[in-house]
Design a protein that fits this description.
Helix content is about 65%, strand content about 0%. The chain is an all-alpha fold. The longest helix has 21 residues, at about 5-25.
Length: about 100
């Protein structure tokens, strides 16, 4: 596969993931973090970092709105449930395997 086609395919896969997560509002971010080590917020951070690395100014709220399909505050109010003690404990015990969302990583 040539570089251009690979980049287009990767971008389409990213859009598919974003669309899937926008449809699966029942899946909580903490569960994504606990099972996969990343969540919607991680995707927003990676998206923002990549935009910034290409000279596009994008703040975190704009990046989250792209990922969530709506302002984060709206999504949180509509779909986010309070994390259980077990979810919080799992989050802490899996912290070492969570995604690195620092810019450039």
């Amino acid at each position: 596969m040539d570089r251009h086609t690979r980049i287009e395919a990767e971008a389409a896969a990213f859009r598919g993931l974003i669309n899937h997560l926008q449809q699966r509002t029942d899946v909580q971010n903490i569960d994504l973090m606990n099972q996969a080590g990343f969540c919607r917020n991680c995707l927003a951070k990676w998206y923002r970092a990549e935009a910034e690395s290409r000279g596009v100014s994008l703040d975190y709220d704009q990046a989250r709105e792209h990922v969530y399909g709506m302002p984060y505050a709206d999504w949180k109010e509509r779909y986010q449930a309070e994390a259980t003690n077990q979810q919080k404990q799992t989050f802490e015990s899996t912290r070492a395997s969570h995604a690195d969302t620092r810019a450039g990583n």
